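Quick one: structure tokens for this chain, please?
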Amino acid sequence: MKKAVIIASVASMIDQFNRDNINLLQKLGYEVSVVCNFEHGSSTSNEQVKKLMTDLDNLKIKRYHVPIPRSMFDIKNMIKSYCLLKKLSFDKQYDLMHCHSPIGGVVARLAFKKSHQQGTRVIYTAHGFHFYDGAPLKNWIIFYPVEKLCSKLTDCIITINKEDYKRAKEKFCVKEVEYIPGIGIHVEEIQNIYTDIEKKKTEFSITNEKILVSVGELNSNKNHEIIIRALALLKTDTKYKYILCGKGDKEEYLKDLVKQLNLQNKVIFAGYRNDIKEILKLADIFCFPSYREGLSVALMEAMAIGLPVICSRIRGNIDLIDENKGGLFFDSNDIIECLNCIEVLLGNEKKCSDYSLYNLIKIKKFDINKINFLMEKIYLGNGESYDQCYSTSL
């Protein structure tokens, strides 16, 4: 039997972005293994990681814990991970290796160099290069040369937004560069999910307020601070609440900020949630202020629910949201522009309704069935770009 391995830095990357890839590889006749850091670094809860491990065991997926770090400065664990992955590549003789995440992708490709030379097909999915138009200079100095070097150890690079696709196609030393619009979402399943609206409202002490929701790790990149600061400047009679779903190292800072700005009765820190889609069904507006994204699943899920969107004008977001059709953009550092977007949507139900309908239609282009069709072609070695397979461009 053919053997394939999926490698990522942390378990949440496997859980959130690779379950369909695992199923697809099994369908294609592969014995599948999973390698990641099962102990540290995940953006989900410990309970969710344990559930993932149980699910993998039930699917007869071999899993290996390797302490792949999320920081490139954790040299000790990078070296340890490299040695463990190199040994695994020699011992298991995989036919296909599919790696993810910046650190995990680099360590995996370096460790599989010899195996690659001996015939292992190496695929790397870039979930958003750290170098992008407008990125800090240090990102270009550190990450660009490393990714360009590792492209020589790769048979196929999968990009999930058009800026990354163009850059990899033009600049990298790799035979195949494919564009796939994200990991795909189960559009129909999301739209049909049952939600006890009244129960959810009671949980969050919601009565007749307008609800804004953000989803994402509470870290610097997700930039939740700008929404909080914009809300502090909001001058409207409209009652609202802002639900922030996620956990992370900025949580205490953001909670202190909310207290300083006297928004304790407006901002709800919901923590890590397994019921994001149900919470989105409560919402009137989705807010997504990140500095950097590849192609956000959270944003796609909000579109599938039919939410109008306020988001930062960045790579990935501009692939998903059409301005003044599905949402409004603001600069990631411009609080006043962000405030204006919030005021417009809070005060215009007709615009919100129009944006909602538009997003419900557009999100169909990102349905999991279309993504799996493209991924199957890539796994079989005859990949085609999205535009080749679908005449309607994004």
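The longest strand covers residues 2-10.
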